[in-house]
Amino acid sequence: MINTELSNIAEIVLNQRKFFQTGKTKDVDFRIEQLKTLKLAILEHEQAIIQALQADLHKPEFEIYMTELGIIKEVDYAIKHLKTWIKPKKAAVSWEFFSYSARIYSEPLGVVLIIGPWNYPFNLIISPLVGAIAAGNCTIIKPSELAPHTSHVLTEIIAKYFDPAYIAVLEGGVETSEKLLIEKFDHIFFTGGTAVGKIVMAAAAKHLTPVTLELGGKSPCIVDTDINLEHTIRRITWGKFLNAGQTCIAPDYLLVDNKIKKDLVNGLQKCLKEFYGDQPDKSPDYARIISQKHFDRLVNFLKNGEIIIGGETKSSERYIAPTLIDNVSLLDPIMQEEIFGPLLPIIEYTDIAEAIALINSRPKPLALYLFSQNKNLQKHVLQETSSGGVCINDTLMQFGVSSLPFGGVGDSGIGSYHGKGSFDIFSHDKSVLQNSFWLDLKWRYAPYKGKLPLIKKLLG
Ligand code: NAD
Fold it and tell me: Per the domain annotation, does 454 fall within a domain?
């Protein structure tokens, strides 16, 4: 394990700066080689990664392939497209610039820092790393201390396949983060909660370091009457209870048209039994809460509203049953904080305007879900609300589309990534304008006498 003393951190950053200055990372073939190495490293350690995620979160193997190891698709996508992304792009010039050519070059930023969360502790480190490598940077990674097994595996893998002067993992908690944030980086990519995001941004500001902040929030899920009820129920149950609700874009609460609430609630209860059986604690397909602190926080939420189904807990296993909750007050803690666990409050509305007003009275969410086939309603909700992203008639799937930028707005984050977006955030767009020598009109040079009408005409 790398020593995280301040002096050592400064030395790692310095070594990475020296590595970056060799220019090695600017070579596109080098980058592609590193992405291929990353893919190989993941494939060769698949079992160790699965075991670590099971030890940290009791994640079902199926979910690990779908939501953590599935990241290989992003690696492949970057390998496939990098040569196109890296090509200088021609920019148009207006007629006054007829003797010029304009291009935009994507250049790497230098040494970047990635700080990760615990809920998808493998994916949410590797995914930005793909962008950092593709864009030609050196990278320091700080995984979450709350998923220690995954953090160790990441450290082992990266140390085995990469020179620490190019990519290094520094394990540790808040203290390690704080020490890292003293250093000057060329970009900081942070995934975590809004409160810590503010701390990271304040530290970055001292060095004028740009940040990408992938934060959380309360993502609403609106359910209209114009739906396929059976599909809606399955998609909501899956999106909410995957990883025991510890997903940044999980539907946080439901806003349901009161005409369909009874059928929806009945269906959700049936679906929970279909997915996890009568005793979800015995189901091999249901994860656990990451830590005692988060378990206690969620257990406190159970005091709010009335439990429809679920509510059972086992502290020794950090198990909380999938739970549906009715009659919550908007002032209850469960409706004030991001839930980030397997508790689903259900709120009814009689007019969509009420649902929209509730969403707009709160910080902008990371995701907004709408279940409705009604085109006018879809248009209305899209126009009247703001959120990081929207997924209509499904949940979570927007995360997996490489061509869609993924990120928040307002309190749910700054910047977005995935696919080319990941390459872009770790690159600087350098504008290059070139003139030629075949002509040098003197209209812009002093003396200006007699030239005023010309400049006025040009500007007009
Ligand atoms: P967190 O903010 O507590 O921790 C994230 C990282 O920051 C960890 O590596 C941690 O060690 C570090 N950290 C904690 N306190 C710090 C401090 N004072 N100074 C510097 N660094 C510090 O978040 P978490 O609990 O790991 O993750 C849960 C949150 O992350 C939720 O709000 C969730 O919505 C959000 N999240 C967002 C996304 C996204 O893609 N937008 C993805 C996953 C999670």
Answer: no
